[in-house]
Amino acid sequence: MTYRITLTDTSDSFEVQPGEPLLEAAERAGFPLVHDCRFGGCGTCRIKLLEGQVAYEEMPMGLSEEEQQQGYALACQAIAQSDLTISAEVFPAGYIPPDYHEATIVSLEKLSHDVTHLVLSIPTASEVRFLPGQYLNIMLDDGTPRSFSMASPPRSDTFDFHIRRVPGGYFTERLDTHYQPGDTLDVELPLGAFKHDAESARSLLMVAGGTGLAPVKSIIESLKDEPHAPHIKLYWGVRKAEDLYLDELLVHWARTLPNFSYVPVLSEADQEWGGRRGYVHEAVCQDHPELNEFDAYLCGPPPMIAAAKKSFSERGLCIERIYSDSFNFTHELNDSVA
């Protein structure tokens, strides 16, 4: 049987078929719920269940046990078990849908032993006002996408990316050997709902893991020169010192920007490292037993996101003020070829 889903914010409603995820039913009915990855990893499509029940074929990684207990669900994976009343965010009327463009490689520069700085020129996207924090898809010859966050704020027709080589990855392993400046790539943008909440006046707690720094850097750069820029605390977690591929820039920002601080954290530090050790979310909690003064922005691998959400919510940070972008390399690994 079908169930009726009511959006409490607008009183609109739509029907969902048996076994159909809520996100698919909402899109079919013309209600574009905010979402991103579509496989339950990022948590962007989180909704609040006010009435009714849902089930999952498999519990999504992007939904913590605490969130589920508080009545939250992920629309991309949730399957209705009854009529529902939900509170959900819908893309606004001015939402810019993604489109396809041709990009030209401007430069390829090694930032570290396994991270490449890719600069693309996309002349036809000069009018695309992507939001700092969003990403694009690079479309491969077989039509499969590879997703990479913009590492710089909107500026003309050039776009920066930090691309980590994934062992066995079809695209990332060939980036430095197969591609060169002047080559063209088909891309799709803008994508993603990870962005700064400009209506909030709270300080920003930004936590990045590895190349999760890219969208965080884009947001910071878009804010740092504003006359009333918020206070920003950045914690960047990597394994070893050699992985801090933008450490010099971030140290410079910390010295010159009045409202910015930076803490690098190494999980596999050697004896020469004199800074913070352990997992990045643990360093945050050691420094801030109470987190209710912040909005948190998390970007990195799914386990980091899950651990940070749990720890931060236990320290008073409301789950609605934790924004996350979860990196996942499933597609890169599954179809890698020689």
UniProtKB/TrEMBL annotation:
Cofactor(s) needed for function: [2Fe-2S] cluster
InterPro entries: 2Fe-2S_ferredoxin-like_sf, 2Fe-2S_ferredoxin-type, 2Fe2S_fd_BS, Beta-grasp_dom_sf, Cbr1-like_FAD-bd_dom, FAD-bd_FR_type, Flavoprot_Pyr_Nucl_cyt_Rdtase, FNR_nucleotide-bd
UniProt xrefs under PROSITE patterns: 2FE2S_FER_1, 2FE2S_FER_2, FAD_FR
Recorded GO MF terms: 2 iron, 2 sulfur cluster binding; oxidoreductase activity
Ranges where the 2Fe-2S ferredoxin-type domain occurs: 3-92
Pfam family, one: NAD_binding_1
Superkingdom classification of source: Bacteria
Domain FAD-binding FR-type: residue ranges: 98-197
Gene3D superfamilies (UniProt xref): 3.10.20.30, Nucleotide-binding domain of ferredoxin-NADP reductase (FNR) module (3.40.50.80), Translation factors (2.40.30.10)
Protein name as annotated: CDP-6-deoxy-delta-3,4-glucoseen reductase
Source organism: Billgrantia endophytica
